[in-house]
Amino acid sequence: MRDWNVLITTVEGHYRQALRLLESWGEVQGTAFFNVIVMKANHPMALLEQLHKIQLSAAEEDFIFSRVIPDRQERCRYTFLKTD
Length: 84
Fold this sequence. Notes:
alpha+beta, five-stranded antiparallel sheet
């Protein structure tokens, strides 16, 4: 995919699950890099909002994404880390 607008890294062991989940927000493609996915999200910022809501309601061991990074044009970088 040449015109992706979001780069995603997944937690080890959750790559295929992440691919399936992300399909509802746009075109998704795996890469040759370990646990790295690119996608063309229809609405990148809405994707971030939804994944953030999922993260807040999930137990740390259930969350499948390490990082979700929109293209630089979006001017935003979002890192999913559980904090107490």
